[in-house]
Each structure stands twice: as structure tokens, then as C-alpha cells.
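Reviewer 2 asked us to include a model.

Predict the structure of this chain.
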Amino acid sequence: MYYTENILLMKRKLSFLKYCENVPSVKKNNYMMMKVGARFSHKVGGMFSYATYSIINGDCARAFSTGQGGDADVCLTHVDQHGKAKMVDISGKNITERVATASGRVWLGGKAFDLLKENKLSKGDVLTVSEVAGILAAKNTSNLIPLCHNIPLSKISVTLKLDEDTKSVMVEATAKTTGLTGVEMEALVAVSVASLTVYDMCKAVTHDITIADIKLTHKSGGKSDFNQ
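Predicted model (C-alpha cells):
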């Protein structure tokens, strides 16, 4: 197991170093990147090694970020200059109406799907219970995700739809607020917990259930919009 994990980590290291070679602001820091890579290869789950070194070395910080295409103006907002986690100060943001939608899918297989469709599962009404679970989860997002802000939600809707062709359940959640920061985490948490609730209520029939494709599909009202 240790050998397999190290192979995977080395592949990530090489991919990251190759990426950095193509980012102008990082080329001059190749020596630092090699040091980071060396440390990374000896630490299972050591992705934080990159984050720590890259934050200390400013140019690398801009390359290792959640941004796209190595944009030098994009960096990790939840990490300070010492590589430590922090909560973002949102007091300077504008108050706007913010909306986010996320989706996911739960593959059940034929037997569990048919029982759910006919509402014959032993735990009861799966769709209704899962929708309520998603709503409750969205309202507790800041208690589940450490650096999320406690956001007063204007609305959270969770819908589950049966897909007969794939024997799966499509889960979608939309969160709304009027405030200083977005609600994409609330939408994602709602989908995640609703999907887990479907699993919990169907696992007596089969454990061959797959939760997948949980993703943000829409975000608006902030500095940048997103649609997928």
C-alpha cells in the first residue's frame, strides 16, 4: 500500500513541476520547486507541502492556487503568508443577492431503484426525507466546513428526480442569500447530504450504490459568475 501511494504521489509531483515550468513567474523558482517535490515524495498525503512552501515563496503561491491557467493574480484565499489556514475577512465586500446551484447523482441499481420508485423501502419515503436532510445540512454548513461563514439563507431548495434509464437519482440544490459572500458551499453540502441520505435509506437492499458527479453548476451575485 505504501509503495502504491508513493507512486501516485510521485506522479502528482511530476505533473505539478511540469505545470510550473510553463508558468513564467515560477521559472526562476525551479530550485525551490524541486525541494518541495523532494519533500512531497516522502510524505503520504503531503500536498500541504506544496502549499506551505509556495506561500512562503510568493511567486509559487500564485501558481499553486485554485485559479485557472496560472493567473498570477489568483491565490488561495484561505491560507495566510505563513501557510496557515485562515477565515477570510469579507467585511469589505458588497452586499448583493447571491445564488448558487449544485447537482449530483446517486446510482442505485435496478432492485433498489424499483423499490424507491414504488416507495416500498423499509425506511420510508426516501425522496422526501433526503430533501429535508439536504435543507437541514445547508443551514448547518458553517458547522461542517470549518472556514465557511455563517450565512443567513433566504432560500434553500433541494429536489430529487428519478432517472429510469440509468436507475439513478438526480439531486439538485439551490441556495440564495443577500449578503457579503456566496452560497456555493451551502448548495454543495445540501447535495452531498441529500445523496448520503438516499444511500442510508437504500443500503438495506444493496451496498452497490455510487454517489458521483457532485459539482457546482451555477453561481451568481459575486465578483464573478459561473455556469456549467
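The chain has nine helices and five strands. The longest strand covers residues 96-107. We have added this to the supplementary material.
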